[in-house]
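Much of our argument rests on the idea that a fold can be written as discrete symbols. In the encoding step, the backbone of a single protein was reduced to a row of integers, each denoting a local shape. This step matters because it turns folding into a mapping between discrete strings. For completeness, the protein is quoted in full, as a sequence line and a line of structure tokens:
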Amino acid sequence: MTRLSQKEIAIGVAAILFLALAAMLPFVDQGYYLSLAVNITLYAALCTAWTLFSGPTHYVSLATAAFFGLGTYAVALWVDVLPFPLLVGFGAVAAGALAALVGVATLRLSGVYFVIFTLGLAELVRQIVTWAQGKFTTRMGLYVFTDLREMHIYWMLLALTALVFLTGWLINRSRLGFAMRIIGDDETVARHSGIDTAKAKIALFVISGAFIGIAGAICAPRYGYIQATTAFNPMTSFLVVIMALLGGTKRLWGPIVGVIPFVILMDFITVRFSNYMPIAMGLSFLAIVFLLPQGVTGRLEQVWNRLQSRRTAKPAAEKAA
């Protein structure tokens, strides 16, 4: 582990101050803006957790809904008999275990095959949960009654987002992060370099899945009544991918750049043009693919590099003249 640079220390202090300021929001507003902030922190946590794995490997996972739903159901099933913090841990373990099983079975796949499998996985889990509920409980949903309010959920999601960022930062500075960057550049080269690519990918996939499961568990009291169709909603997976790609996945903080404007836009469209939400998502995805393939942060880096190259080229041209 290398020593912290002055820049990293400054960024860390700024992040702590920002978190402290953001944590004060419930004391200012407990209506619309708090609800919007909960959605932003939720997707910030989900997108950053997704980027932990999909960013360096370039594997597009659509299993977010499966991990999120497992975390939600971990709380819904036992909220009346076990303390909430323990249930959040159960959600992380359940989602991490599923990620491990999926990783062992599928991370040797790549490209479109991995995308299709993870999409089918979320649907498979949803169908199994729906069947089990109808077979053993004769109920289509579960009630979640707790003393937790919107402000408590917001604080927990804010803490989770900070934890995901910290974990991602530590991974980037570790051997695992270095190995994942090599795998993302060329997996064949990584294998020939002696890196156990399967083990590294599974480890990071489990970490990513566990964080998504925690987010689902935290959000369970917010929904009140949970059904498999809402807990394992495939829309969650697609929204996470769109927001993360919009912001950019090369940087750990990149997805947050996509989360904030997209959540605000999504809220606007849902309130005023709810029937057009799928169309808006499709258009957003097409715009990202054709106009911002590297995301907003990637485009900003390209502009910055061009400016830097022009600045360095000017003195050189003047000297030559």
Remarks:
- The chain is about 80% helix and 0% strand.
- The chain has one domain: 6-320.
- The chain has a mean pLDDT of 86.
